Every structure is written in structure tokens, then in C-alpha cells.
Amino acid sequence: MAADPKPEEISHPPMDQLQGLEYCIDSNPSWGEAIALGFQHYILALGTAVMIPSFLVPLMGGNHGDKVRVVQTLLFVEGINTLLQTLFGTRLPTVIGGSYAFMVPIISIIHDPSLMSIHDDHLRFISTMRAVQGALIVSSSIQIILGYSQLWAICSRFFSPLGTVPVIALVGFGLFDRGFPVESLSDCYTIRLFLCESISGWTVCRNWLSHAYPIRNLLPATWKENTKCFWFYFAVLVQYLKNFQTKQVPILERFALLLSITVIWAYAHLLTASGAYKHRPEITQLNCRTDQAYLISSAPWIKIPYPLQWGAPTFDAGHCFGMMAAAFVSLIESTGAYKAASRLASATPPPAHVLSRGIGWQGIGILLDGLFGTMTGSTVSVENIGLLGSTRVGSRRVIQISAGFMIFFSILGKFGALFASIPFPIFAAVYCVLFGLVASVGLSFLQFTNMNSMRNLFITGVAFFLGLSVPEYFREYTIKAYHGPAHTRAGWFNDFLNTIFFSSPTVALIVAVFLDNTLDYKESARDRGMPWWVKFRTFKGDSRNEEFYTLPFNLDRFFPPS
């Protein structure tokens, strides 16, 4: 048997902190650059903040005005929750946004017979909103109790680097169906053009588009050739001049997302105004036109969201049990997301009590969601974590500035609605990159484990496969049968199981942690990466933890770290 290589012979030794970042969690760019980066994070957060209400509000009987009001409320509470999390929670540079994990129980509430029997659409919308609010308020207790009691800190001690790899990776990979939605992109040649040029370059793209979409028949002849030249220059600008610097700032790399969205959004608006989508299918117009969201016309100039603005919440035991499962799923997904964010911010993995503290504050966030009526619960925004890596800026200040933008533009309705009118496929194109980046961060934790061990290969492979396969089965089953595989007379039980197994990170955590802690776990401590991991389990285990996770205003006097 060959001898193990010496440390100096390893070309890429394991590293606690990710290298190559311009700014880490506690270092800040200039104020001008920080404000621009914060605005970029705000624009990215708009995707989920608009998508969820756009899907749910019409099902509830709401109109465009109701949708705008929900979007404003969701953004307002997102800003508050993000500030709370970055100041008093984990203190990681994470945006706290709306969660898709709550969709299953919310849809179940929407289709409750007692609510569906209401004939007046507006009254049904208000009644459904109040029911969702009540369920969110009760379900927030799950995270509040597990977080502040430090029970989640105790549970997290069973997580090893090997066990967390599938969880973190599937936080990104598990969202694959939102990165390239077939219906949204099938006929939206504007976004296809962007994706094609970003990935393949102009020459291949031009040949493919000439067969797939005869643009010369769709665009006015006066600017069709200029459009081709424009996209060629744009591809060169973004892909090959990303190291271009202005005053020692890599503008094209640092603000590629903002520049790309601005240009493509303007291009989509030009196509809309010129009538290019006029005779296209309805689904194409809905996803590609910039005037189909009806946000700007329906938004008030100034509107400040406030608690109980929809009326007093209503409480139903069945609704609450289903929502509790979503809160638990959100907890697991956020756990993986926090670990990914710590790596992309060049910080140490959050100690157990810091992670639990963050979960507690996230529970407070879900409570605020219920009080204000955001239509969904809270979780860590995965796309914004990916943007930390894309810009190579993991500064906490940047995220706090983005929270300020969320609050400001949610109050100034018309201006916020202008930015929120960006077509969904543009966000989907961005997600293809950012979700994949987060997933790769999860895979990077394999460097601390022994992947020459058959035990580790078995656990990793099975957890990954089941984490993708089981939720896909539940999704396919639901599409065909119009209900989940769990379909008993107890609706709360159905919502509980269907919500749990719809989540890839949750399934991966159940499988990976169970196998990792039952299969030769004592003999395999080194293979699992525990010698490296153990120093980050307590606050005082590594001297760098104090630099990254100490509370502001000297609050550690009242909440001493464990």
C-alpha cells in the first residue's frame, strides 16, 4: 500500500476560509461601491419577492392591487428581517427572503372548502390571508423554541463535514427547476439570446438562433442588425473584459449582474414597445413582456405596511400543523445556507450556539411575516448567497445596505414596482449561475473528508440521489394526481409529510445524518472530517469566531457565548 503524501506534497491543501475574496465579512468596500453592491442585492431579491405573490394571490381571489400590496409588505419585512439577522442573528451577510417551502401548506389553506365557498373574491382573499397569517404566527414557535433554547445547537453537533455536504449542495441543486423553467423560456427568445451568448459565445449562438427564431421577421428592420452587433459587443464586454478596472475597481466583474439585468430588461422593454410579442402565445407574453405584471399601474405612490393590516389573524389547528412542517424545512434549508454563506464570506463555520441564535431570530422573522401578512414565511435567500461569490464581496455592510433599499422602495410603491417589473425569465437566467455556485460551495466541504473511504462514498452518493429523487417523485405525483402522495382524510398530516419530502435539503439531511451517525461513526471520525470540524463547534474553539460573530453594542455581556 502506498504511503500517504506529506502535507507539502498536496497541491491544494484543505483551507478553513475561502481564498480570493476582495472583502470578507468584516471588511468593507468604499461607501459608493457598497451602496451599488447593496442595490444589486436588492434587485436580485426582487425575483422571489414578486414570484411568490404573483402565483399565490390570484389563487386566493386577489387582484393586481392586492398583489402589489403583498409584494410591498414582503419586501418591507424582508428588509427588517435581514437587518435583524445581520445585527443580532448569525451576523453573516445573508438576505432573509420569502421561502418556497411554505407553498404546500399555503396552497392547502387556499383550497380549504370553508374558504373556497366564499363567492366574493376580495372577501375570500382577505379571509385566506388571515388564515395564512394565523398559521405562520403559530409555526414561528418551532424556530423560536429550537433556536433560543439552544436545542438546535445540540442537534447540530451531530453534523459532520460529510453529513453537511449533501445538505448545502442541495440547497443549490434542489432549486434546479427554478433556474430554467421550460414554460417561461420556451418562446422567450430575448432570454434565450442572453443565455446562449453568456454560455456559448456569439458565433454558435447566431447560428442556432438563425434556425430557432427568425428574428428578422420579428424585429423592425431599422435596428435588427444593430441588435446583433449590440449583443456581440455585450458578450465581449461581460465575458472577456471582466478584469477591466476603473479606479482599481473591477467594474464588469463586480457589477456584472446589475449591468446584465439593466441591459436585458431595457432590451425586453424595447421588444415590448415595438410589438415583437404582439402575436406571440399568451404564456410568452406573460413571461417576456415588461408590462404584464401590472405592478406599476396598481402600486400607490407611498404606502407603509403595518402589522395586522389585513385584519385579525384566524387560527385553525390543521392549518398550523402543516405550516409547522414548512417552518422545520425552512430551518434545515437555512442551516445549509448559513454554512455556505460563511464560506463565501471568508468566515469560519458558525459555531453551534451562533447557528441556533440565528434560527431563533429567523423564527422572529416568520412571526413578523404572520403579523404583517407577507403570504409566506422566511428563509435565507440562496441566490443572494451565490451573489457573494460572484462579486467576491462578502461584506456584512453591503447586505445591510440592501435591506435599507428593500424598506425604502417598499414604502415608495411606484419606484419599487418599476424595478419589480423585471420579467421572471431574467431572474431564472441568473439563478442558473448563482444556485450552481452555492451548490459547489457545499461540494467544497468534501476536502475535509476522506473520499477514498467506501463508507463516505456510500453515504454521499445515497444522500445526493435520494435528496434529488424523492422530491422529484413527490412533484411528479402532485402534477399528475393534483395532490401529494400523502393523501389521507387528515389534511394536516398530508401537508406535514408532503412539505417535508418536497424539500431536497431536508431529505438529504435525514439520510446523510442518519447514516453518518450510525455507520461505523466512532471508527470513522477522521474520515468524516471531525478533527477539523470540532474546533468550530464551540465559540471559543477558534479565536477567529470572536471577530466574526460577536454581537454589537457589547451585547455579549447579557448573552454570553457558549
Automatic annotation (TrEMBL):
InterPro entries: NCS2. GO terms for molecular function: transmembrane transporter activity. Keywords: Membrane, Transmembrane, Transmembrane helix. GO terms for cellular component: membrane. It is a multi-pass membrane protein. It is found in: Membrane. Its main location: membrane. Belongs to the nucleobase:cation symporter-2 (NCS2) (TC 2.A.40) family. PANTHER family: XANTHINE-URACIL / VITAMIN C PERMEASE FAMILY MEMBER (PTHR11119). This is Nucleobase-ascorbate transporter 2. It comes from Populus tomentosa.
